[in-house]
Amino acid sequence: MRQVLWLWCCVALLTVALSAQAPQNPALAGVVTAPAIPDTNPFASEDDVRAGGALFQTHCTYCHGASGEGGRGADLTAGIYRHGGRDPELYASIRNGIAGTEMAPVRVSDDEVWKMVGFVKRIGSRGLLEKAPGDPAAGRLVYQKSGCVSCHRIGEDGGGLGPDLTDIGRRRGLKFLTESVVAPEANIVVTYRAVQVVLKSGQTVTGIRLNRDDLSIQLRDTRDNFRSFMMENVQEVRYDKPSLMPAYASMNQKNLEDVVAYLHSLQGAQ
Ligand code: HEC
Ligand code: HEC
Q: Which ligand is nearest to the CA of 142?
């Protein structure tokens, strides 16, 4: 018991001493609080970058493509980052994942995250790997004529039923963009899953599911209105048409390439 008390005294004294010094000495402040993310990558040797490449193959290519060219995930070959390109920023994106997107935190050690930061920077310094074959200016017209505007916002213009496309060119790779247009059902944006609510009155309301609990279900209908239904009035909740976007499967090859080139060119406000 006496030993425990002694130990407690030591810890208390040390804490007081450190916190008293902390304001003058930033290095000690780091000791008291959580360790800060270093400003430069401590694992950036050639061997580390190579190890980072192997880790990337295992954990990241499913979304970012075998060479980082993107797909479900962002194109990492451009060296342009929405969430910051400094070492600690890339570290944070990979360590913690990116909230509100499909990119989840990765389950590897901190050292391994640093090795991947080195690899990601390496592929980002090589310049854009993917060049869209189509013509973005022609694609803009295809976009306007095909009614995309009614459901998607670019900058200030357009409807709100589908995701904002202002910086879609940074978030998704070419293959994914093409698929999004011809076969939207293949990759549904998680926060835009469609639902059909069949009411006991016989009416069916279609929209994007916002929330559901035991008592009620909320959705945004196809006219962009917020709707809420008590489950006691609901006959059935169906998910048979999971995307509200029509498939543009019959679009000719040239128009498709052009519209994808246009989407690829949308890099957000600079
Ligand atoms: C399930 C799919 C998925 C996986 C797996 C995934 N990512 Fe991502 N990643 C994304 C998406 C989607 C984005 C774009 C997020 C957004 O909207 O900004 C992204 C963004 C990023 C960014 C930020 C790019 C920027 O513009 O700032 C980095 C860096 C990144 N990923 C690296 C990785 C690494 C390294 C791995 C492997 C450990 C990985 N990702 C695994 C889907 C994924
Ligand atoms: C009736 C509304 C509607 C129209 C018209 C429409 N979309 Fe969509 N779009 C959606 C919805 C809803 C989603 C989200 C569900 C999904 O992923 O399928 C979506 C998803 C997308 C995505 C994926 C976005 C992401 O973040 O991954 C792209 C790209 C896209 N649409 C492009 C287009 C283009 C190009 C056109 C015109 C040729 C078009 N859309 C027409 C409603 C629409």
A: 2
